Structures are given as C-alpha cells and as structure tokens.
Amino acid sequence: MEKGAAKNIELIGYHDLECRPAFKMAMQVVHERWYLYLGHFWSSGWTVLDVTQPSKPEFLKFIPGPANTETNQVQVANGIMVTALEKQIVLPEMLGRQNLPPDFPYEEGVYIWDVKDPVNPKRLGHFMTGSTGTHRNHWEGGRYVHLAARIRGFEDHIYVILDITDPSNPVEAGRWWLPEQWVAGGAKWTKPWIGLHGPAYPEGDRAYLGYGGAGMVILDISDITLPRLVSRLDFHPPLGSWLSCHTVLPLSKRKLALVNSEAIKENGDEALNYAGIVDISDERNPRLMSLFPIPEPPPGTPYRDFCEKGGRFGPHNFHHPQRQACLEDRDDRVYLTYFNAGLRVYDISDPRLPREIAYYVPPDPKERRGLLPRTALVAQSEDVLVDRRGYCYVTDKNHGLHVLRCTL
Question: I want to staple 339 with a disulfide (CB 3.0 to 4.6 A). Which of 158, 212, 234, 312 is the partner?
C-alpha cells in the first residue's frame, strides 16, 4: 500500500474495489458491523464493503447496474437505500462499453432498495423522470427524497421532491425550476449552464441548492407541493467554472453555508475555482464572507502549483453528515476533496478566516481505468465520507478506496 503526501493525516487502509473506481458513498451500522456502499464511476453498479476494521476493508458484494447508465450516487438511511440512475452523459466508453448506438437502452430516475439485510439489497421500487434521470440527490430518511432530475420539457436538472411513503410506489410531491429552464414554454438560458447540480439540502422548511451558473438558491419548502424562492446568490462571474455553484451545505446552527464550484477544465484553464463560506443569517440577502485558502503542493514536488500537475485542480465534494448517527457531524471542521490536490481539511471555527489544518494527496495511479483525466494520469480525488469514529473514506477516478484518519 503506497502512501501519498500527508500533513496531519495518516493512511489507515486501502481497497482496490476489484479495479472499479468509485464515486459517491453511504454508510450504515447493523449489529455493530460497519457497511460502506459505493456507487461506481466507470462501471455501472454498486459495491458493498465491510469497514468494521478500517485498516482491512472487506469486499462483500458487487451489484451490477444497467447498461449505458451512470450509477454514481448512493445514499442509505433507516434501512432504505436510494441510488441515482442517469443516462451515460459523457462517452459510452466511460462505462467500458464501446460503440453503443445512440438509441441503446438505459435506466433512469432512482432505484429504491431495502438494505435491512446489509449485504443483500432487495429492490423495492423505481421512480422514472421520463427523461434521462437524476444526478445528485438527497435522502436522509423520512418521507421525502430530494432529486436533481431531468424532466421532459426542461433544460438540465430541476428540483423534484419525491414521496416514498410507499417505496414500491414512489410519487412526485413537488417541483421547482428557474424560468430559464422551461424550454417547452419558449425559455432560453441566460448563462452558459443553469441547472440543479444537487443535492438540494433540506433544513427545516428551507432547502439549499447548488444551481450551477445560477449560484446558490434558497427555497421555502414549508409547502412541499409548491416550493418558493427565498433568495439567490451569484458567484460567476468572476468565480468558478461554468459549474460555478456545485454544492451548498448549510450549517444552520451557525447560520452559515459551505459553497464550492467544480473544476471542469484540466490544467487550471478557467476562472478561479473556489470553496467558501456564506453568511445566511439574513436569508434574503446571503453574502460570501470568506474563501478557503488555495492548496499548495507538498514540499519537494516537481511542480510549482497544482495546475502544473495536470488533470483537474479545484474543489469537488464536501463530507455530508446527512443526519446519520454513523457519520461525523461537526460544524467547525470541513473535509473537501480537491481533485489532484487530494483531500483537504479545514478549521472553520472562525468563519472569516478558514485555515487548512491537514491534507492527504494520494500517489498518482499507475493504471488508467477510465478516460479522465485526459492530460495526465494523476490522482483525482472525487468524494469523501467521514464516519463518527473519525475514519475518512476517499474515492478517486482511477484508484480504489483510501481510508484515512486525521491526527488532529
């Protein structure tokens, strides 16, 4: 197990995932066993690991997914698993299936599973959007799943609230979109890309949305059937790629929200991608109050900055506690994957002065398992999940799963 460059983080374990790089993750604890569920990046399907002993993750099962379908996201709560399904939107080869015809079938929407038997998920229901599916959703238990869904008649993803009171018969309860998205009504985009990247993160009777080129959106969802706009905060221009608001994660007790863009182009060939903190104490007038420091390369590296390293450089995914007892939930520390800069950890006890306190940059992969990154075969840390024991699980475009622990 080759170690990467680290500050205040130790490498605990690694699993190759049978050569299937993973993306999003979820966790549950059943009878004192810790189960990690992973949605895959280049392969369609889901993996179940036992991480009760984090230094030795145990592979339990791979569940094949449908062809020509992205299965990037998975979430678990209350013995129910919700997995996103979306038509492969980049290249057919990214699923290892070359030369697929344009009309090759795919699955879309979400699957709903019973995972009370944690190793043998049983599919209960399937919700379809009528278009190309869902991307990054939010499910924390209860009645509703919050979807970033493509719906016929709309450009890109809109916000859909799904009622799964009966998991075998999920039904749409409400939806919201920006006027520019309703192309069936003659609307036209006013920015390069507008759409809900997701997740739509509910907090009481509010929902916080990362809406791409439209920035941060706050909605009133006191009436689930009719969400209403509270406010918006734009970031681009000048900050971020065309996906200038990738995530909004509210820290409601502190009246703050974490925000970030997503680096799209490689070698830093776009506007500054950012991660920062927004003051939401006045929800009708949210304001950006600070930016996280830009990661610096570890000492002794052959490049001056991470843009020179190749691949994407910029923030991607925060750790989301999802109100799950098995996951770490604190509002003074932030875990953020940063593509070729690995995992970065920040102290935000002073929200006006966030400080980087730890990092882990994986070694560059030696085997290409997908088409990205194109410019160089370098580490591209995708997602992070932190359990309540303090173990960090990090996925990558071409690696397996790294298990880390912050020593602070």
Answer: 312
